[in-house]
Give the backbone structure.
Amino acid sequence: MFYVVRHADGSIQSVSKLPQPGSEPIDEHHPDIQLFFNADGAAPAFNAVDADFVRVIEDLIDTLIMKNVIRHTDLPAAAQKKLMLRKGLRNRVQGALNLFGGDDQVL
């Protein structure tokens, strides 16, 4: 759910996650919201940056676990599940692209 403030012509002036004076609630899938976030073509760029940033966070979590700063079990169950799902998917994709196997395999 978002809260929007509109211009006099009805177009969205600003979007917030919290109610603002003069704002109205609007569903995140509403066409006006989609238009607002995609109006300048910035959304695809944000999506690409977000995907890269997710990988950075994932690598950071892996590093913290390897250095025994945190344990995998310290994370909430939902986070553990998402991390394991991403690792599994990434390993499958990397394995699918690794046609010759690792260096330790004999051809």
User: Anything to note?
Assistant: The chain is about 50% helix and 10% strand. The longest helix spans residues 42-66. Helices lie at 31-38, 42-66, 77-97. Strands lie at 2-6, 12-16, 24-26.
